[in-house]
Specification:
Length: 503
């Protein structure tokens, strides 16, 4: 048994403690990161939900306002269609007839002209004047659509530029005039300036990079505020993936990439009543999540610093624990090792011998003890001095340690110039062989100094071979007695004894 093996083996326990500490810290960091990630995800969802609710309120407000005004236009058209089909109005004066035809058209804001067209598209009546203007609108899409479509319902046209001097953008609301048998009699048409929608949208605060859009069910952009690019009004979006989804779902919200500016947007949309109009609020994702990103950046940074600090402190603690363990191991080694010889000291010898004796008693296996003494060491020390004496002790100890090879064996300094070797599971023959080897090698050692003589040792052996009634003191006593027998017999020799026990 080497000196190291005689020291309590706590290295593995200390390493396990370090790994447990690192594991616990890692789990704590993972838990912190998990909690922070969960909270940030929840806050992200809350920011999106809040923006969706705000956008939904805007959409509903626009829906209500647009629906109210479109109903006013439709009311004007219905009144015009009804009055145009009354035969009695054909006999009244032009001013009275004009008043009867357009009495419901005065309340519509941002209205354009309201016209009554005949089967050829010529103007029969004009809300702008008692005497109708000279003009033909047979080329307008709404007029062509009503010729082939007998449906008397209101139709909303794609945006177009007016034939007035300012040529502003407008859309028209129109109804078909049909005879008793469904024949085409003409069209009642009312124009709305798209500036109405722009004025309405401007009054709503949706952020700098967000837009409000009014789109027909055919995918034609009727109004946008603020405009992302020029000449957006009238553009066809019917084949764009976002519009296809909006048309399919009807109402709701989703986040997607804009096909116009390639930016992430939160779309909230709704159809305006039963009208073929869709209001779309496209909020900029950058604006919606700007506050969240700011918070997430600070929280993530603080969490990262905290986690790194925790791991760093854990590593520092592990390093200190390792240093402490090494210091304890060194103290344990120093407490169990003889400083001069480098072999186990007397305390370690006594503890090991007691343990091996108890084990031999349980197992019944032999236990051998070698007691080694340097011959004439007192005279050597007195003659050549303590420094050379210490060198001699170290030389003998190194030789003994070199001969004791088995891990279970232990070489120790017994005291002064005496040494002891514990040989578990070794009978008398094996112990004698090892003792003779030690004696011969020490005899062959070169002198520690030119002036000094060579060294020799006397060795006493006692081997307990399982005899009942023996004690540890007897084991020691018989080994010591064998040593003195070797000295009295002339030194530089090995004497073996047997511990037979009491009968």
């Amino acid at each position: 048994m080497s000196v190291k093996s005689a020291i309590p083996r706590t290295g593995k326990t200390a390493a396990n403690s370090e790994w447990l500490l690192i594991l616990a810290s890692s789990l704590a960091v993972a838990a912190i990161l998990g909690i922070v990630t969960y909270l940030l995800i929840r806050e992200h969802a809350a920011a999106e939900l809040s923006a969706t609710r705000a956008a939904t309120n805007i959409v509903q407000l626009i829906d209500a306002d647009v629906l109210r005004n479109v109903e006013l236009y439709d009311l004007s058209l219905k009144g015009l269609v009804s009055a145009a089909q009354r035969p009695d109005l054909q006999q009244v004066s032009a001013p009275i007839r004009h008043l009867a035809l357009f009495d419901r058209a005065t309340a519509a804001p941002y209205k354009g002209d309201i016209l009554l067209l005949d089967t050829s598209g010529n103007v029969l009546a004009d809300s702008a004047s008692v005497v109708p203007r000279k003009g033909n609108f047979a080329d307008r899409e709404y007029f062509k659509a009503h010729i082939d479509n007998p449906d008397p319902g209101m139709m909303i046209s794609p945006p177009f530029r007016a034939r007035t001097a300012d040529q502003d953008w407008r859309i028209s609301f129109s109804r078909r005039l049909s005879g008793e048998h469904g024949e085409f009699l003409g069209v009642a048409e009312a124009a709305m300036r798209l500036s109405y929608f722009n004025q309405l949208f401007k009054s709503l605060d949706i952020g700098r990079d967000s837009t409000i859009n009014l789109v027909s069910r055919d995918g034609i952009l009727l109004a946008q505020q603020p405009a992302l690019t020029e000449d957006m009004v009238g553009r066809d979006f019917s084949n764009r993936p976002n519009f296809v989804r909006i048309l399919r779902e009807g109402n709701g919200s989703f986040t997607s990439l804009s096909s116009i500016d390639q930016r992430q947007r939160l779309y909230t949309f709704s159809q305006v009543g039963e009208l073929p109009l869709i209001v779309v609020v496209a909020l900029s994702a950058d604006e919606v999540f700007r506050s969240w990103r700011h918070t997430a950046l600070w929280v993530s940074s603080a969490t990262g610093v905290l986690c790194i600090g925790l791991l760093w402190l854990t590593l520092l603690l592990c390093r200190e624990l390792r240093r402490r363990h090494c210091a304890e191991q060194e103290l344990a080694r120093l407490a169990s090792v003889d400083a001069l010889s480098g072999l186990a000291n007397r305390r370690t010898l006594d503890q090991t011998l007691a343990r091996e004796w108890a084990r031999a008693q349980r197992s019944g296996k032999p236990l051998a003890l070698l007691m080694i003494d340097i011959d004439h060491f007192k005279q050597f020390n007195d003659r050549f001095g303590h420094p050379l004496g210490d060198q001699a002790l170290r030389a003998v100890a190194q030789n003994i340690a070199a001969c004791v090879q088995r891990p279970a064996d232990l070489a120790a300094r017994y005291g002064g110039e005496e040494f002891a070797v514990i040989l578990p599971d070794t009978d008398s023959a094996g112990a004698s062989q090892l003792a003779e080897k030690i004696r011969a090698q020490i005899q062959d050692l070169p002198a520690v100094s030119p002036q000094a003589s060579t060294l020799t040792v006397s060795i006493g052996i006692n081997c307990w071979s399982g005899a009942p009634g023996a004690s540890l003191d007897e084991l020691l006593g018989h080994a010591d007695k064998a040593l003195y027998q070797a000295k009295h017999a002339g030194r530089n020799r090995v004497v073996s004894n047997m511990c037979r026990g009491r009968t």
